[in-house]
Amino acid sequence: RRNTRKNTKPIERQAPSSPFSAPACGGASHTWTPDRRMAMASAARLLARAASEALGLPSAAARWTTTRTALTTHHPLGSSSLGLLLAREARLAQATTTAAAAAFSSSSGSSYPPHITLDMPSLSPTMSQGNISEWKKKEGDQVAAGDVLCEVETDKATIEWESVEEGYLARILLQDGAKEVPVGTVVAVLCEEAEDVGKFESYAPPEVGSAASQEAEVPSSSAEAPAATDDAPAMSLSLPPHTVLGMPSLSPTMTQGSLSSWTKKEGDAIDAGEILAEVETDKATIEWEAVDGGFLAKILVAEGTSDIEIGKPVAIVCEEEEDLKAFKDVTAEMLEGSGAPNTAAAAATPSPPPTMPAPEEKKAAPAAASFAPATKVGGRVPASPLARSIASETGVDLSLVVGTGPGGGRVIAADVREYAESAPALQQQQHSAAAPGVRMGDEYDYVSDVYEDVEVSQMRGVIAQRLLESKQTIPHYYLTIDCEVGDLMRLRSSVNASVEESAAGKAGKVSLNDFIVKASALACKDVPECNAEWRDDAIRLHKNVHVGVAMDLGSLGHSQGGLVVPVVRNVQLKGVSAISKAVKDYASRARPAGGVDGKMRLAPEEMAGGTFTISNLGMMGVKQFAAIVNPPQSCILAVGAVRSEVKKDEGGGYRDAKVMSVTLSCDHRVVDGAVGSKWLQRFKELVENPLQMLI
Question: Which sequence positions are flagged as catalytic?
């Protein structure tokens, strides 16, 4: 298999940082061929085997200890060149982070053949979750070190996830399109032999921290629920699929309540929307409606009980009637002692406390409430399965239905039925109730609102989160100054004219923005307080200037738009032509890769580590604007368009001046007003006397 990869073109890769990266080699680059990549992976397994033998572990565990485990747990090769290369390569895959002994202990008791679990990797420094765009391998496929497993959409770009191990893809746990998968979540399983693939058909990852993490790996065909014992955790984990109902919060100020009466008894069938019990709150006695269907398996708190804290288990609902007997001896103490009210087999989490309003409030204005837009969570309207089924059958748009269920307004079946009944009447009222002065029956007829909800992408969600965090936590202030750029524009024209005559041709031309990037870096060197960041207990002054250049993805050919900020490093040491080359390279790789919308060829490390940012909207005709500081930086420069103004010259005459307005947004915790003004004065001096940038 490896011989078929001979004479393959080397892949140039910028070596990412790793736990063992020394400063001297943190920015080095290495040439990786597929042969060399597989050789490194093989060497890693040899290191793992040697480390495991030293610990006295069996060879089966050693064979499946990953590269990362071998280096982080049993190195001392972390400081060697081989250790560094392997650590960097292991970071790309992020296959596992457990130690060799832990890996052995979790698999030695398993009835599955030797395997490793593949976790959602962290493919950028700021990534906390990701979306699985597309699997490039399917179950049963052979995987070699360096093969692309799937494409992952991070908070910055869509990135290929490469395998660091060899084997066969035994099980894919999260399919294409899986959204907001936290880093570290198990998404797939890799086994050693092809004939073992079918044995993982019923594989489910063990619950983190569960006492039954080893039992969770036993195939369902041979797994039988153990008999109930006096041990609370064992009792809880052996129960059939169920949901624990906690005392709900039925008013905004409710912290505890009393169970006046149960309207259902143990063994009764429950439909969504039916009344379970009457709960006395701090304001009134309110009916508690069921959110989902099932069977009332156990009442843990008897009616008449007072002062029950919100969230305390009061009942258990199971899915199947034949499972009722399994809950006969369950107590609240058993559930609380186990720390896991639901079994691993129950794919649903415990139902959150309902927060439906009192019946009087619900009857006050049912029609108006039904047309209030629902609050979306992660781009999807929260609704019960029964509500979704009824909405699908009746053609009701769930986003138009106001929810009265738990979790801040979850849509339940009763809400959908009420909307379906009242919608025709309300629409007739809306059409007949024209605004004052509006004639009916002609071109002024009532026209209903038409809109489209566009799902929030991973990138857009992160942009919203970061910018909101910046405005809420950073005390912004803004300084604006006008710069005359006539001399700068003439210098640029002269440089480009000379470049056209050279071999570089049009590719070597520089833009006005390239000079602005250079002037910003030199101003940061002279006023280092603007090239700094707030660290809570210290202000970090950066000695090198790494300038982030904001780029609009919509202008680069992506349909949904968005913003990326690739970083030009060590700008204070670069010439304008080198800056121009770097920015053009970033822009070309930010365009849709292979014509695929939303996919780029920018690496996450190329968009991290900036110390100062420039946002230029001048090419769009914007005169002046204020940008939002990009944490943890302390400043961002907003550049407006060049415009013509008539100015009085020293001789008393008038001249046509080319003027550009720039606004510096500052973090007042780091940059005082006088310091920001000093930076702008230095920037203005460099822009108006551009030859200073060439000295």
Answer: 668, 672
